[in-house]
Amino acid sequence: MKSSVQTLPPSSDDQFKSQLDKRYNIDRIFQAISWIATFSGIVVLTILIIGILSQGLSTLSFDFLTSPPSRQPDRAGVWPAFLGSIFLVIITGAVSFPIGVGSGIFLQEFARENKLAKVIEINISNLAAVPSIIYGLLGLFVFARLMSAITGGRSVLSGGLTLALLILPVIIVATREALKAVPDSIRQAGMALGATEWQTVRTHVLPQAIPGIMTGTILALSRAIGETAPIIAVGAAAFVPFAPEFSIEGLQEPAFTAMPIQIFNWVSRPQEEFHTIAASAIIILMIVLLAMNATAILLRNRFQNSR
Amino acid sequence: MTESVFKDSASEGADQSGLWQPNRSASKLSQKAVVILFGAFAMVSVFTTFGIIFTLLFETIEFFREVSIIEFFTATRWTALFANPEFGVMVLMCGTFLTSVIGLIIAIPLGLLSAICLSEYAPRQLRKVLKPALELLAGVPTVVFGYFALLLVTPFLRSFIPDMSIFNALSAGIVLGFAILPTIASLSEDAIFAVPSSLRQGSYALGSTKRETITGVVLPAALSGIVASIILGVARAVGETMIVTLAAGQSPTLTLDPRVSVQTMTSFIVQVTKGDAPYGTIEFKTLFAVGMTLFVITLILNIFSFWFVRKYQEKYE
Question: Which end of chain B is more exposed for a tag (fewer CB within 10 A), N or C?
Fold first, then answer.
């Protein structure tokens, strides 16, 4: 101890320098960089939106929405793709909403401490990280091939079922979160009055959780609308000149397209005119997405305010 | 558990006493039916996993009957769609690696710094606006990012690097980075925000500046959540399809030069499925072999993340 003191410089003021000026400068630089990083993402989003609007607004019209695609860019429209996307969302929602909410209720209300529930939980968090194109391969093999007698092969039904599997984990997690937020006292009160678990959930817990569940479902469906890779893998065709029919046969028709597929097709062509109408199609897709997101946010705010 | 005890004693009691006996068989039956039905629904997600594994394994085994597994992992050329095909998946993995690394070089620092800024520097009101704005970026469909990369970013980059080809890994990688940035930012922010403020106060009391507190105390405390978010970002980058398909092109090249066109595992799958590959052909089987490789990579990432979070998670009251 003594020797170490001796090796130190004589003046004790020199031994500890807080160097506050230097450290505060580093602080300021760090803070500035972190602000720049935060705004970089938003700047990129802004550039993207401005770029697409400046490209695509000129060719955006009502005719563009209601015309079938064409080899000539000035006559082409997105009607079959637009309807295809709506069909996909309806099928996806109709399949994934009941299954997702049912699974969520099962895991959160009926099987809370269960071993099976643990396994399913780990499985769901695993599924969330599986790339969407892998779901496309699953859909190609299972829905478009093994079940082609029901789905009609590479049809809009196969595509919708594939997307339903893709967003299922998201809906399950959203349902569980919404159910978790409902206070336990409600369940206990229901049980104390002699209701079964299901009666309590159906009449009291679920009505309180439904806004949260709807928010999660809408966000999941808006993700499904924008998904391109899995439905290409299932077999969405690039050029489908006719709108799908709303019938069993229409759903099984082995040729379908959707908005992202149409955009992908137009972007990958070399002619610049097609790039312009791709931007117009992107604007339509983004408006739909924005409307869905706004609905979800409104629902969430309303729900939070009323509590 | 308590309710099952309750039910038993209630039914026993009902047999003996002449008191009011509620006939609850209908509601009990519906309870049972619903539990079974919803339990079956919950199994759908398990079957999805089995379905994925079965699908990939089935066709991959078929594939390896025709192509040796050694060739698949050691050959240095990928010409799956030509007359004399060679299957060196290394080439596609290299393309995936290149675009992902470029993306992560952008997404990890920017995502982490955004998370730090949102949690530590931004005023609460501003955070309420900025976080949803960043999440909006996450909601942009990847095909739109692909458009952005190919038609806006590439021409811009080419004005600086004239010898870069139209399809290149650099532009795809940069846009990929911004596509996964919100994932990393949002999840890391959750982890950083959850660190209790007593830790920060302790650090200030010892004389640390704010930056020293963040890098020395807060980030290590949130490490498991941050690493989990980064690994999810890596998995997204590896599995990302449309950006790389549109902007990086379709030419399988074994290179680490970001200026030339590369093909990733995902863009190969798109290239083949777009062209309507008939069942039973080698192209069709190749799809699943490549898909299996991709799946195994994301699975390893997942398992690592799971292990890491378990080992290093800090719990605070």
Answer: C
Rounded average pLDDT over A47-61: 90
Q: Length of chain B in residues, anyone?
A: 317
**CA angle, B99 as apex, B96 and B101 as ends, to 5°?**
100
The pLDDT value recorded for residue B68 is 86
> Does a structural domain hold residue B7?
no
Structural Rg of chain A based on CA atoms:
27
**Contacting residues of B for A191, CB less than 8 Å apart:** 3
What's chain A's average pLDDT? Answer: 86
How do residues A184-202 score in pLDDT, each as one tens digit? 999 999 989 888 889 999 9
Tell me what the mean pLDDT of segment B280-306 comes to: 90
- Amino acid letter, A57: L
Question: Is B199 a domain residue?
Answer: yes
- Identify the CA nearest to B287 among candidates A133, A261, A143: A133
What CATH number does the domain containing B134 carry?
1.10.3720.10
Domain positions in chain A? 62-306
Minimum mean pLDDT range among A146-155, A216-225, B143-152, B156-165:
A146-155
Rounded distance between C-alpha atoms, residue B139 and residue A223, angstroms: 7
Q: Is B231 a domain residue? A: yes
Per-residue confidence (pLDDT) for residue B209, from 0 to 100: 92
Residue that the structure tokens 């890491």 belong to = B308
Q: Which of A108, A135, A141, A173 to mutate to test the interface with B (most CBs of B within 10 A)?
A: A141
Helix, strand, coil percentages (3-state) for chain A, rounded to 5, are 80, 0, 20
User: Per the structure, how many domains does chain B have?
Assistant: 1
Domain span holding position B172: 89-312
Can you read off the two tokens belonging to residue B295? 């799946």
d(CA A252, CA A257): 13
CA gap A101, A175 in Å, rounded: 6
How many Cα atoms occupy the beta-carbon half-sphere of A43 within 13 Å?
A: 8
When pLDDT is cut at 50, 70 and 90, the band that residue A102 belongs to is very high
Phi–psi pair at B78, nearest 5 degrees:
-125, 105
In a domain, B39, yes or no: no
Q: What is A62-306's CATH superfamily?
A: MetI-like (1.10.3720.10)
Nearest Cα neighbor of B237 from B105, B76, B73, B49 is B105
Among all residues of chain A, which has the CA nearest to that of B185?
A38
The answer to whether residues A81 and B154 touch, using CB atoms and an 8 Å cutoff, is: no
pLDDT tens-digit readout, B129-167: 888 888 888 889 999 999 999 999 999 999 988 888 889
Q: Check A137 against B288: CB less than 8 A apart.
A: yes
Q: What percent of chain B has pLDDT over 70?
A: 93
Q: The tokens of A262 are what?
A: 């149409």
Cβ atoms of A235 and A261 closer than 8 Å? no
Q: Please report, for residues A70, A259, B14, the alpha-carbon distance to residue A79 in angstroms, rounded to integers and kept in the order given.
A: 11, 9, 65
Residues 176-235 of A with CB under 8 A from B: 191, 194-199, 219, 222-223, 225-229, 232-235
* pLDDT over 60 at B128, yes or no: yes
